[in-house]
Design goal:
This protein is an alpha/beta fold. The chain has helices at 24-36, 55-64, 80-90, 104-111, 116-128, 145-157, 181-192, 257-262, 267-279, 301-304, and strands at 41-44, 70-75, 94-98, 132-139, 161-166, 196-197, 209-212, 220-223, 238-239, 244-246, 255-256. Helix 2 (55-64) runs parallel beside helix 3 and helix 3 runs parallel beside helix 5 (116-128). The structure holds S-adenosylmethionine.
């Protein structure tokens, strides 16, 4: 329901035929097998998860899978306010909300829609209902710098974390220049004073590194895939809506689980396929080399979830 300039083509995408999209029982089967291999956390992203029909029952049933401790969402937040009570009831305990600017005109420029107010209402509602909230901002060079301080101020004013993400050269993102952590941090320190590394317990599930600013209720996080490569700690695998499982965001490598699910493959074989895929996870991304071949992911980020 948005057309973020670095994520989705302006004129939209060709919709995938319904029969190619995994059905809920297929997703649940995959997640059950994965949980037996030690996966404990599931994040539903997209596309936009809040436009998916049947989201509530999917969340509820994922949450009921043995071994699954946490089901969370990454969303643009536009539909969040109205859907929150049902999502909460279904078992969502935390939401990541994408927000690159709090300037209404720029929000429209970046996303194609004048929806900033709905997003802000969604954030407020999530906090009021006791959800853990993280704001994700992709830092764009010569674009949203004037907003970084304002976005960071959300973590001062409210008990939420604001994370700045370095742009990864994937899909339409290749055409944009992202800003690096050092530049963003300096910008914020000029406004709010010196930050120190987060002294608390391990925060979050993975790649973000958190900093404390004086007087802030929440933390400021950086997800710096370019300037602070974190591949050696990457514990994620991704599955597209069509059931293609990817061990690394950058590479095309992966397994078409849908064919296996719809064939005669039993759970034991599925598990073996997963194990192989995880063992073959690439050592690290190669964003820094200007490599362009068929080993790289060709899908837009909106199809692989970010
Ligand atoms: N529609 C949801 C949303 O807006 O959050 C979920 C999908 S979106 C692909 C997930 C996240 O990926 C968003 O925070 C978006 O800003 C981020 N993203 C998209 N393209 C990116 C890129 N090239 N590099 C880094 N982050 C990117």
């Amino acid at each position: 329901n948005l057309r973020c300039i670095y994520c989705m083509p302006e004129d939209g995408i060709r919709l995938t035929e319904r029969e190619k999209i995994l059905q809920e029982p297929e997703i649940l089967r995959i997640c059950r097998v994965m949980s037996e291999l030690g996966i404990t956390k599931i994040k539903i992203t997209g596309g936009e998860p809040l436009v998916r029909k049947g989201l509530y029952s999917l969340v509820r049933d994922l949450k009921r899978c043995e071994g699954i401790e946490q089901v969370t969402l990454t969303t643009n937040g536009i539909l969040l306010k109205d859907k929150l009570p049902a999502l909460k009831k279904a078992g969502i305990s935390a939401v990541n909300i994408s927000l690159d600017t709090m300037d209404r005109a720029q929000y429209q420029e970046l996303t194609g829609k004048d929806c900033l107010l709905q997003v802000m209402e969604g954030i407020r509602a999530a906090l009021e209902q006791g959800m853990r909230v993280k704001i994700n901002c992709v830092a764009l060079n010569e674009c949203n710098e004037f907003q970084w301080g304002k976005l960071a101020a959300l973590a001062k004013e409210y008990p939420l974390d604001v994370r700045f993400i370095e742009m990864m050269p994937i899909g339409l993102g290749k055409a944009y220049q992202g800003s690096m952590q050092e530049v963003i941090q300096k910008n914020l320190e000029n406004i709010y004073g010196a930050a120190k590394p987060d002294s608390g317990a391990v925060r979050g599930n993975g790649p973000a590194v958190y900093w404390e600013f004086p007087g802030f209720q929440g933390k400021i996080g950086f997800i710096s895939a370019i300037s602070h490569k974190f591949c050696k700690d990457c514990n994620r695998i991704r599955m597209t809506a069509e059931g293609f499982v990817k061990p690394c965001l950058q590479f095309a490598q992966g397994v078409d689980m849908r064919s296996l699910l719809r064939g005669q493959t039993d759970d034991k074989e599925l598990k073996q396929v997963f194990e192989r895929l995880i063992y073959e996870k690439p050592r690290c991304h190669q964003f820094e080399t200007e490599k362009a071949d068929e080993s790289l992911e060709q899908r837009e980020m909106s199809k692989i979830g970010g």
